[in-house]
Amino acid sequence: MDCDQNERSLEDINTVLEYAKLELSDVKPTVQCIYFSQQLDNQSFKLLELDDTVLETLTNGEKVVIRGNTDDMAVLCTQTNTFEIKEAEISNSMLITPQLDIGEDVDDSGPQNTKVSKVISVMNNYYELRPCKPKVAKLKKLLEENMYSGKECEEDEQHQGHKYCFEDLLNIVQGSEVEIKESLKKLKACQIEGLWRVLDFDFLTQVLNHIIQLCEENDWLSTGIPLDECLETLGQLFPREVIAHVIDCYANEMKSGGGQGDHDPDDQPMQIDAKFFSLSEDKICQFFAELVLKNSGKFNLKEFLKVWEQTVPQGMRTSLSQLEGIALIDRNCMPEVIWYFPVEDLPEDVGERFNTLFKTREKWSLAEISPYIRDLTTLKVDVGGLLTKYARASMMNGIKVFSSRKPVT
Q1: Nearest CA among 173, 169, 84 for reference residue 137
Q2: Do 108 and 142 touch, CB atoms closer than 8 A?
Q3: Is a pLDDT exceeding 80 seen at residue 169?
């Protein structure tokens, strides 16, 4: 009923108070009469429940962004976090009345009066936020549309795909700025002429092999790689930003320049701000394991270990721990075999991830499966929590193993 047709008077209100056995002193002087508008508008706005993180972001004057194409599930992003937006039902209808005064907004004293508030909308649902991982698979797919293979290949037909700056990625990828930057680092993406690219694996192999060869020729494996000298030497073969990027991916910056090389060969002091890097044994060995396994199918484990050991730079030691997240070993067949199985190629969806894992192998030990689900964990759900929900534990030969809770498709 519209308020203009039948508005309550103070006499009506006092009669109601009398029936309710209330004195005027028991209530505030302003009485708010709520009526339904003749035309309810339930489509002009939506209700969104904010968690503490998002509320604090907005309170601090920072922005939040809703991202997603028409075929994506929408997500809300702060500067650092990503949240799924899920629709939920309200058990009791919620009335939206913009003119309603609440609590301290109503005066405690003064003459008795009435105020009319209209209900302009009746809401039966709202949207809630759930923390989620950024959709990195889309980022990987975008960057692989046009991988970088060197300046000489940029005009080839195979390298005419899209190229993206960071703003482009923000508009397409469902993730916060911080998370997208972290994902770019995990994908070993490189910024070339202002655009984000991933290096073609064969091209990456060329660059890294030249860096290692230069290290072996100059004994930099033991003394450290002088960044400026390395860039100067290889700069005619590859873009300097690519060389610096590959060094950053596969080496660690040394705290003080050159280990044993505090002075140059002529006993001249080194520049204080000169950067030196030490190749990471684990990262280099993992790279060469990928190089051997990438296009090999199932490989005799014993033969692989020999080949792998021969391909890494002299003095570096290989270890099966370096294969976590990139390869699987089957010790139940004769001979034992190993094959390329990178975690980055697995589905992002948790259910699909577990389905793929159990389709690949029926039973997993904790050590085997952990590298393939660790990236799915959150602050509230760790590896153990994921396994409790999606796997069934049992004992096999004295070792706890995990199998699928539901039929594998």
Answers
A1: 173
A2: no
A3: yes
Sign of the Cα pseudo-torsion (236, 240, 243, 244, in order): positive
Contact by Cβ (8 Å): 89, 125: yes
Roughly what angle, to the nearest 10 degrees, separates helices 301-311 and 281-293? 130
Say yes or no to pLDDT of 370 above 90: yes
341-357 pLDDT, tens digit per residue, is 999 999 999 999 999 99
pLDDT band per the 50, 70, 90 thresholds, residue 265: very low
Contact 1, 35 (CB under 8 A): yes
- Whole-number Å distance between alpha carbons of 357 and 371: 11
Nearest-angstrom CA–CA distance, 362 and 356: 10
Q: What is the pLDDT of residue 205?
A: 97
Model confidence pLDDT, tens digit, residues 41-79: 888 888 899 989 999 999 999 999 999 888 888 899 999
Q: Rounded distance, CA 171 to CA 192, Å? A: 20
Residues 6+ apart with CB under 8 A from 227: 244, 247, 274, 275, 276, 277
Amino acid at 29: P
> What average pLDDT does the structure give for the chain?
89
Residue range 292-328, pLDDT digits in tens: 999 899 999 999 999 999 999 999 999 999 999 999 9
CA nearest 399: which of 375, 369, 364?
A: 364
